[in-house]
């Protein structure tokens, strides 16, 4: 578990997931949505973890987070408490059609893929 502003170095990636190394040498994976860039520490520029709860790759939580991070990036407002808590609703719209229209073709395909995975895993 990383707290807010945990200094880290991104050393690789797989899709939205980033392979990270902490200052103490601990290695792991974090979803890119929860990594902010960049701060200067002693002359070196590093990324930092943003507040989150850890999720395992391909877990229901990870799939939900990735899917809804796309909706959030295109300006969609969430109605449920989980979405509001994870992403907030500042400066967004409840117009789902407009939000979907703002998605790239790649993002729309990814949302569909994530929904399929969630259903296959019985997440919903």
**Beta strands, count:** 5
Q: Over all CA atoms, what is the radius of gyration?
A: 16 Å
Q: SS-based structural class?
A: alpha+beta
Helical coverage, percent range: 25-40%
Question: Distance between the terminal alpha carbons, to the nearest Å?
Answer: 25 Å
Percent range for β-strand residues = 25-35%
Mean pLDDT: 79
Order of helices and strands: EEEEEHHHH
Low-confidence stretches: 50-55
Number of helices: 4
- Morphology: globular
List the strand order in the largest sheet.
3-2-1-5-4
Largest sheet: 5 strands, antiparallel
List keywords for this structure.
single chain, 124 residues, alpha+beta, globular
Written overview of the protein:
This protein has 124 residues and is an alpha+beta fold. Helices cover 35% and strands 26% of the residues. A 5-stranded antiparallel sheet has the order 3-2-1-5-4, with no helix packed on it. Helix 1 packs antiparallel against helix 4. The two termini are 25 Å apart. Mean pLDDT is 79; it is low at 50-55.
């Amino acid at each position: 578990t990383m707290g807010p502003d945990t200094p880290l170095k991104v050393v690789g990636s797989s899709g939205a997931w980033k392979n990270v190394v902490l200052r103490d040498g601990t290695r792991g994976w974090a979803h890119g949505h929860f990594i902010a860039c960049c701060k200067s520490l002693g002359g070196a520029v590093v990324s930092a973890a943003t507040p989150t709860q850890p999720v395992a790759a391909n877990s229901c939580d990870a799939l939900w987070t990735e899917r809804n991070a796309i909706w959030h990036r295109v300006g969609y407002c969430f109605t449920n408490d989980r979405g509001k808590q994870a992403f907030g609703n500042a400066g967004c719209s409840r117009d789902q059609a407009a939000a979907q229209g703002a998605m790239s073709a790649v993002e729309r395909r990814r949302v569909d893929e994530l929904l399929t995975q969630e259903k296959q895993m019985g997440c919903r």
